[in-house]
Amino acid sequence: MSAADNIATILSSGARLTVPLAFAACGEYVAQRAGTLNISVEAMMLGAAFGSIAVASATGSATIGLVAGALVGVAVAFVHGILSHRVQINTFVVGLVLNALVLGLTSYLITVSTFTGHQVWQVNVPGLRDIPIIGPMLFVQRWPVYLLLAVIPLTWWLVERSRWGLELRAVGENPQAADVSGIEVNRRRRQALLWCGLLAGLGGAYLAVGEVGSFNQNMTAGRGYLVIAAVIFGAWRLGRTLIGCVVFGLADAMRLALPALGVTMNSQLLIAAPYLLALLAMLVFATTHREPRALAQPFQRGTT
Amino acid sequence: MDVDDKLTPALTLRGVSKRYGPVVACDAVDLAVRPGEIHGLLGENGAGKSTLMKILLGLVHRDAGTITRGTEPVEIDSPQVAVELGLGMVHQHFSLIEPLTVWENVILGDTGRIDRAAACAQVEEVSRRYGLPIDPHVRVDRLSAGERQRVELIKCLRRDPSVLILDEPTSVLTQAESAELFTVLRRVVQAERRAVILISHKLAEIMAATDRVTVLRRGAVAFHGATKDTTAQELARQMVGREVSLQAESAALGLLPVERPAPVAGADGTEVAPSAAGPTQEKPAVLRLREVTLLVGGLPMLDRLSLDVAPGEIVGLYGVEGNGQATVGELLSGLLVPDSGTVEIDGRPVDLVRPGALHHAGLGIVPEDRHHSGVVLDMSVAENLVMKSLAGVTTRGVLSRRRMHRIAQRQMTEFNIVAPSPDTPLRSLSGGNQQRVVLARELSAGPKALVAAQPTHGLDVGAIEDMYVRLRQAAAEGVAVLLISTELEEVMALANRIAVISSGRIVGVLPTAEATAERLGMLVGGVSH
């Protein structure tokens, strides 16, 4: 293979590995802007990955599986929202419990059931796919990738231009002020979580029925945490958050490509690479940005 | 202006009560506010004003009583309902979202699609109608306190409220800005027949700006009547529940003119250079800030600020909120580290990065926000009292509760701290007693210098008086006292010298004897001489 081919391969696989992160990051970004430091994004992704394969296997349609996966993400978000923005349980505790619960549950269910493999169809644009280096990355992808390209501007528009988004930002910055302005703080936060669940669900489902075609135990392997890191790395701006996702995705692609390129490294170390990168990124950026002021602060009327 | 008593009130409260456990915050309060009047609601802190307003805004649910809007009884169970009923409130601590622009803040809580152009046009229209100039595209965190209040007012007025409530609106304003505000309010009631409720603990303000006044004392209505038929003295008596005679009290209540105390022994009032509190004192300064610059978010909160405090004197650091006094307070609490410049105590620079360095160097601090950085509310009185001198009550890492109790008992007696026992959680004490705990702890450590930041904020008159006496006493005993305050009366009543801070710089230092409200007002406004 030529060097150009190698680069094209890495870019193309980097793009594929970025997609689940980017979906989930669009969701996590919204949740955090509304003030929820949502760590159950891992549970949303993992649950969705399992759900998508299970439903795809039962219906024979990978697309129905993808939709089902998104709904699993929404379900996790719904539970999280009720527990932390209605019953007011500490959001980290809720997130940790949900992550452990979904990991345990899917690990058990995969041992007692057998699923057939399914994958959503691939877009393959003749002509354009032959553009050197970037052709395969842009024009040979499974269809949810192109859905992502619509989700990103939609998310930006929702947060920055819609009234819902304005209210979300207000709620994430100063819930007391939002409350006296007549905004239902916890309701907005639950809605933001549902959006997060939908997109994290799509991301997780893409991992299963898009990328791999099957489910294996702990399939997301901490990708949800990388997504949280990307939002922080991106200083709560969508563009920078997505750049973070691309960096993590490329790091992952490098990990997969290096052995094929003849570079031998300890494979465990390679697996750790994206997370190491996330840690370094946070170290560099942790001091420079301004987070939503009420991030991770619960709201209850009457407490000041 | 005369108000017809037969007019249907815009808002009527009858027998409204609210208890928090054993504490009665509001006790069968009656209040009627008519269209076209400014109704003053006067009371000490803790008299129930805030609770009453929270009930009106749907933030707190009342236990008993009725609320009538016009002729209709209403239930206000959420802020959304309050807005729909035409009740608008300008909050004491602004309820604006700082990273959002003016117009975004103004339309918060509306429904429907966002129309940026229409929103901005509306902001400009309201701003023109009331004479509240503001640029709708500016982000709120770039605005001064006075401008933020304009935004709050515009936000309220745009929703066309029939009752406008202002909670301590002048606490962050200069005198000129306050006057401007009252002009706008006059227009709101006279031309548009709205009702205004003005909550305040400043008598002068109530006397000057209101048509009727209701005085709350310990949750109950103590007085009600037309402002022109009463006097400030009378209101003061109703508010406190006894004759007000002490100078400190009058000053605290905003009754002018202010008496100037004789200089405390050990201090002198010699002329001082206007640009820095220069070392013209005979005794060398104990507390010295030298060219301190402190940036917050890239903006200078303190700009090469220099200030000296000699032993035995009280220096008042005066200015309008948001000009850097709070930053000085936080700096001297050890919460902030300056970007350049030094803080010296007794001639030695203090390494501000080390936790507790200022305390060990001999600086006592009564912080502005005691709940934030002064005390631990859920710990006991005794624990709070010994918190900074744990070495004295521990043996090889084991806490001696007996010694702790003994020390606490002694300080409670000495400082008149009223609490059932040293083991009472601090949370259940009144604000005044909590503040006494802070003061007792700081003074018991035998500080060389004491910083008191807004020491009487939120205190009742008795506690204010007590605080004044203690601060004077500390100065008389040779402690260098820095009083950081936004209350002109307080600074005039206590300080030997007044340093005026504006935009993070000391713009002038005057001996109190030479300070007049006009001179200080000009300095505060940034007019240097």
TrEMBL record, chain A:
Coiled coil segments of this chain: none
UniProt KW keywords: Cell membrane, Membrane, Transmembrane, Transmembrane helix
Its placement in the membrane is given as:
Multi-pass membrane protein
Keyword check for Transmembrane: yes
Compartment(s) where it occurs, according to its Swiss-Prot or TrEMBL record: Cell membrane
Is Kinase there in the keyword field? no
The GO molecular function terms of this record are: transmembrane transporter activity
Which chain regions cross the lipid bilayer? 48-79, 91-110, 143-159, 192-209, 221-238, 245-263, 269-287
Origin superkingdom: Bacteria
One GO cellular component term of this record is:
plasma membrane
A Pfam family it matches: BPD_transp_2
Q: Major location, coarse class?
A: membrane
This protein is called what?
Nucleoside ABC transporter membrane protein
The source organism is Micromonospora matsumotoense
UniProtKB/TrEMBL annotation, chain B:
Q: Which GO terms describe its molecular function?
A: ATP binding; ATP hydrolysis activity
Pfam families linked: ABC_tran
Q: Where is the ABC transporter domain?
A: 11-243, 287-528
CDD domains (UniProt xref): ABC_Carb_Monos_I (cd03216), ABC_Carb_Monos_II (cd03215)
Source organism, top-level taxon: Bacteria
Concerning InterPro entries, the annotation shows: AAA+_ATPase, ABC_carbohydrate_import_ATPase, ABC_transporter-like_ATP-bd, ABC_transporter-like_CS, P-loop_NTPase
Q: Which UniProt keywords apply?
A: ATP-binding, Nucleotide-binding
Note whether RNA-binding occurs among the keywords: no
UniProt key word ATP-binding: yes
Q: What is this protein called?
A: Nucleoside ABC transporter ATP-binding protein
